[in-house]
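Handout, page 2. Input:
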Amino acid sequence: EILIEGYLIRRGNRSYIPMVLIPKEKADFPGITRFFRSFTLLPLKKTSWQKQELGATKIKTNSPGAFISKAADTTAYNYNPRIQKFVVQDINTAESYVAEVEELSPYYWSNSDSLFFDKRVNEFNDFNDSILSVQLTGGPVKTCEALIQIGKSTLFKKVKFFLNGDTLYSFYTFQDQTGLNDAQVKSFFSDVQFPGEKPTTIFTNKA
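Output:
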């Protein structure tokens, strides 16, 4: 009788599974354990990041490649025709970075920036997730940055919202803590540039 034994190695979005085929009577052979434990991962190649524009929006940020516009799934329960979605993937780490541009309804308003952003953060907070931190900043362009742990895993959702005028910009990625601590990944959120700053009417009662 032949058995298949495997050893799962996870790094970011990549999984590596070395495997061996062995007779059942040798399933506990020490050499197999040494074989699996001998695997080490080489450092990933570093991608050259540059300022990239989100389509023709004139909004730029640092990213590992050109953003690709993604068509929305019109059958999705949360489909919103006001949202434009842009995605870029790092070819070396296989990590994805997403930016969404949402033109808010001219009739939409909120009592405060904290209530407005709390609602948006909770949209990323799925069942069994945990919101670890939320930071708001004022100014002409209001921002909110949130860190959410995905269930009990070692992966996190990092999202940063920018409210410029009556348009909401959402930048996010799902990674482990090592990835989020990388200087280039941090620049995806910190280097967002707008062609200009606009006042918002979102906090004006429109009832």
